[in-house]
Amino acid sequence: MSPAAVFTLHTFILLHYFLVVGQSAPVSPPPLFKEAAESAKMLVEKILNDIITVHAAAVNAEGLTLEPSAHTTTLQMMATTLGIPAAPVLKPLSERFTLDTCLSRMLAGSQLYQGLMGVLSSRLSGLGDLQADLRDLQTSINGMKELAQTNVGGSVTDDHQYDNLDLASHLHGNYEVQVAAHLTLAQLRSFCHDLIRSLRAVATYRPRVAGAR
Questions:
Q1: Is the pLDDT of residue 5 over 70?
Q2: Distance of alpha carbon 60 from alpha carbon 140, whole angstroms
Q3: How far apart are CA 158 and CA 155, in angstroms?
């Protein structure tokens, strides 16, 4: 075999190797994305601490505590009656539940609870810090979407999913306000725990490029 043929064969083998490795190698998120995810996680942890403080100050009706309750089913029914939607479901990342979908649901959930806090703030005091934190969280998640080059602001469906909250029309008296505040804060706390798990996952997620074997 001539030297030129040997060189061509070696070049072909090397190109094939790098193509295979490149196709199967996971793609790490950019360092700034990891930093943004960590920043968002710290903000969610602050929100979790604030929820405890706000609940203790604002909710004083008997039996409405953040501890596990035997009346969970009744409270869930009351959430439906009061027009308090369930938070978006956050799942482990996969080909079906993509990074874009995950971030969009994070954003939609933070928008939901900011909206609910806005309604409750007309009947209760002391919710301003939580509202501000939720706005900051939305800014942080949108920043992550920009870094990940996904659809900033969420999909059209996510953007308008919680536009027509019907909570205000059901707050007839103080008891309804107390129950609504309790349910909103309890659901927000649960959503925040899901957020932390998801933020940890997306910070280290390494999707495979198209054509991976």
A1: no
A2: 33
A3: 5
